[in-house]
Amino acid sequence: MRIQLSDHFTYGKLLRFTFPSMVTSVFISLYGVVDGLFITNFSGKSALAAINFVYPILNILSIFGYMVGAGGSALVAKSLGEKKSEKSNELFSLFVYLCTALGVALTIAGFFVLKPMLSLLGAEGQLLDQAVEYGYIVLVSLTFWNLQYLFQIFFVTAEKPKLGLYVTLLAGVSNMVLDALFIAVFKWGLAGAAAATAIGQIIGGGLPLIYFFRKNDSLLRLGKTRFDGKATLKGVTNGMGELLSGISSSLVGILYNSQLLRYAGEDGVAAYGIMMYVSMIFNGISLGYVSGSAPIIAYHYGASDYGELKNLLKKGVILLISSSAAMYVFSILLSVPLSQLFAGYDAALYNMTLHGFRIFSINFLFMGLAFFGSSFFTALNNGLIAAILSFLRTFVFQVAAVLLLPLLWDIDGIWYSAAAAQCLAMICTVIFLVAMRKKYHYA
Asked: Which conformational region is residue 221 in: left (phi greater than 0), alpha (psi within -120 to 50 degrees), or beta?
């Protein structure tokens, strides 16, 4: 039976509805992971360090799609809850076209700023050349990367999360197969990894465009729209938390790389990159759940169904706390085989990765609930609180931790930084949830 946004959600129904979004988010994360896996084993740690150095910049340019998708879908889902289907489709079309225009503009800007930014951040010689090579190729698909983030959320709003999953699976499998072909068979190295990623993103962002432009049986369809300044501003500001989260995470990644170059050299950057690959998969599970549940929350908020809003909050908190504990256990159990997989060819890199990963894994205990706060308030159309929580979690706490803790514990302080930041973010989320319970009637 098809699950609708208007339904009452049990644990089983909530997991079934959000599961495609979780798998989708994980597969999007796998693009970089698969690139890293092939590159580290076929081209060495210098090439791996180059990808890890340029990826935060590329991620900043791609995250605008997530901002428009998260903020726009909250407005669209709220309109659906208010039974305004025509307005919902106009808003949906507006945000898709806005995302496309942003993607084109960011692509052009990226070709001008990428190399100077990498040089400014300390990349030089072979590291700079390899990072630029990878970055320029991926920039070609940047518009589709942004659209893929946007459609990941809007497929859920359209009550088609499984279709979104199928598109992402196709894009992800294509990326993996092409990585094997371009890197392992054709020996194209970094250029092959970048090309495989770009093609995967074009598939992931392009196929949904075709689907929504055609007549379909979902709640949404692309068509004519008109510019609505108020709705555009509301959608953008409503998704500002997600934008700040993505930009801040990338800036913090750049800061981590800088600190690691200082404390541990190129091996430190490569080891951190390996941890980020695993973290992206675990992050994908939590992000997939919160993005999959956000349209449901927005719908019931629009319908003034406060009983269901309370139900969704309670179940979401329990599910995320449970999954966070499970992620920590799995990360410890998998620390040896994963470190061996990515760094087994180099003893020093392997030992550094294994030791750091066991410390870094503590952050998974707090991650789920920390992510949930900003997404929950975005769904309630409160972009200000969402932005505050995101900014604190991804920037303020991370920057403070990665600058201060190494002064106490050297490189171990860098590995502990993520856990310290996520713990503080989780505490702030709980404070805001308690403080705003009467305004939104979810408790």
From this structure: beta
Cβ atoms of 298 and 381 closer than 8 Å = yes
Nearest Cα neighbor of 268 from 103, 430, 48, 99 is 48
Task: Give the whole-angstrom CA distance, residue 423 versus residue 78.
Answer: 31
Q: Is 82 exposed, middle or buried, given 0-12, 13-18 or 19+ CB atoms closer than 10 A? A: middle
Residues in the chain: 443
CA-CA-CA-CA torsion for 321, 324, 325, 327, nearest 10 degrees?
160
Contact assessment for residue 62 and residue 140, using Cβ atoms and an 8 Å cutoff: no
Asked if 305 contacts 163 with a C-beta cutoff of 8 angstroms, the reply is no
Q: Would you place residue 5 in the very low, low, confident or very high pLDDT band (cuts 50, 70, 90)?
A: confident
Q: For residue range 255-295, what is the model confidence (pLDDT) as tens digits?
A: 887 888 788 877 887 788 778 777 777 788 888 888 888 88
Report how far residue 107's alpha carbon sits from residue 135's, in angstroms, rounded to the nearest whole number: 11
Tell me the mean pLDDT in the region 409-435: 92
